[in-house]
């Protein structure tokens, strides 16, 4: 690796676009990190939750036996009944948001739902005392319906229509696919963690350390829920050990800890264990997607019908509507199509919640379009590259407004495909595939293109030059391991012509920046970075206008003019063992356009990590409930994650079309890998097995699933 550490005498030069080493790594890699779990106020109490072992039932709780030595308090739903409901982002009209209880009220709705909580002087005592709470779960009538005021369990629905769909499908070649995305767990290294500390007597101020992606929203929500003014709650987000969407919205346990600390006037800490995160942290995906596409004989996409069915749990985290909405609004992806009919809905179920998870609907949209493209290519005897070339929107067609209300801002989609086929040496690959097939190998090549909405709305920043020359940069966008501090320094140093070492960065503390959003939806650089650039520009201008002055400050709330859309493509080569069904991903080639890049090394890290998670979805990961609603994948013994040895050779290449809709011109890249990789891998698997008559393989494509598909095809069955 080249040593791009800034030298102290490096002055006037460009910092944007340099692969600076992450300034946070010395600290993080030598045990110097400070995570929420490291925060230990004096006399801190600990909490343990009693969780429901059944998915439905009316409660009768006896807590008497739990009150023993070291136990400070035992709480049930009756105590927390007054806490208001968690809010849901109203991106769609008419969302039915079930009541969200910190602790179950008179009945439970899912296995793992917190039913009671013990606050004690140690974690062990709290856990022991939980064992002494006795609960009867009486059967309820009609457990199929969760809430009487939502009789069909459908929490929301929306549809879009454009063009003459019936005409497009008449006389066309029609292909269809049906895809069930496995439900996934984010499995961040650091589980959910919260520490709440009440203020000194009379101060009435609560400090909450929280492992979150959204400190400001968490502060606002906690203040609302606890009936406090915003300035009476401070949220501090120290180092975060991964989040992936699952830490973007508050969970009931976190609200409970803040409430209990406030009520008892004592500091309280809760660190979820891995099983609690499998059980009750919001899951991702689980979406069912069906699509039918009409093509002309020449391979032109004439019409698309899509049905997106989102899966929800028994409560809705803040961003719960986002995955299904994203999956729908992104269609038909990077392709031109004059007639679309898209239906989207999502239903509640007796499980833990479903929320955004890295990709959040984008992988679903890409999988649907890319599977349809490959199926049509096969049907029409076209090459998968050719059918995509036939349908991609070209550069002159952007910006492009679509039926679902989105506007693709910029880019050159055909150029990305061309670059991908060059990088992968596509023609040679096909020839080598033929040779290997001739000797009986099952080899597949899969391509997937994607578009990624990444950044709209606003974010805050404050930049200050102090009298002694120190530059301070505060951002509303927080960090969760992605190298935010390094990128912030580069943006500000570049604009102010200073050394990145001279920029001090503040984030993740609601006392340091008073409002903001956070780090999610691939928006930190595009929106948070643009806010920093704007603040730095204002400071620079102040300095020009007031040469006598020695300190300068700009506090901005930047709002982007529109939504930036990055895009790209992935090509996967897989081989499959016909005796075991085991899939080996031999290589992945990747091309994307993330607009202005602040730090290529950080971008590469994001793409590699996303690809690893995408490979996990395609081949390994799945949350499984049995028919009784019991979670069968409650630990890492049952839920398979990709390891380093599962990751193939990955080659990355980039295009750069700065986005015209934000100041920095940046587009996001945080979710890209999870979007492009699964569709490319699944297309490669189906390409490998096409000659065997296999037309569909479910995700995750484990060796058993693939083996069953091969066997069924051999026996002439469809599965
Ligand atoms: S799934 Mo992301 O952290 O918006």
Strand content: 15-25%
Strand tally, please? 27
What integer is the average pLDDT? 95
Structural class given helices, strands, pairing? alpha+beta
Radius of gyration in whole Å, from Cα?
26 Å
CATH level 1 class label of one domain: Alpha Beta
Could you give a short account of the major beta sheet?
7 strands, mixed
Give the distinct bound molecules: dioxosulfidomolybdenum(VI) ion
Enumerate the strands of the largest sheet in spatial order, edge to edge or round the barrel: 3-5-1-13-10-11-12
Summed up, the helix count is 17
What does this structure look like?
With 719 residues, the protein is an alpha+beta fold. Among the domains are: 413-454 and 567-654 and 677-719, Aldehyde Oxidoreductase, domain 4 (2-Layer Sandwich); 457-559, 2-Layer Sandwich (Aldehyde Oxidoreductase, domain 4). The chain has a seven-stranded mixed sheet. Strands 7-17-16-15-8 form a five-stranded mixed sheet. Strand 16 (301-311), helix 8 and strand 17 (339-347) form a beta-alpha-beta unit. Helix 13 (484-496) packs parallel to helix 14. The protein is globular. Bound molecules: dioxosulfidomolybdenum(VI) ion (SMO). Residues 213, 244-245, 248, 356-358, 360, 520-521 line the site of dioxosulfidomolybdenum(VI) ion.
How are the SSEs placed, and which strands pair?
Layout: H1 25-29, E1 45-51, E2 57-62, E3 71-76, H2 77-80, E4 107-108, E5 114-120, H3 123-130, E6 134-138, E7 154-162, H4 165-169, E8 173-180, E9 183-184, E10 193-198, E11 206-210, H5 215-225, E12 233-236, H6 252-264, E13 268-271, H7 274-280, E14 284-285, E15 288-295, E16 301-311, H8 322-329, E17 339-347, H9 362-379, H10 384-391, E18 400-401, E19 407-408, H11 413-424, H12 426-438, E20 442-453, E21 458-465, E22 471-475, H13 484-496, E23 503-506, H14 524-545, E24 552-559, E25 565-576, E26 583-593, H15 600-619, E27 649-655, H16 672-689, H17 703-714
Parallel strand pairs: 1-13, 11-12, 16-17, 22-23, 26-27
Antiparallel strand pairs: 1-5, 2-4, 2-6, 3-5, 7-17, 8-15, 9-14, 10-11, 10-13, 15-16, 18-19, 20-25, 21-22, 21-24, 25-26
Bound molecules: dioxosulfidomolybdenum(VI) ion.
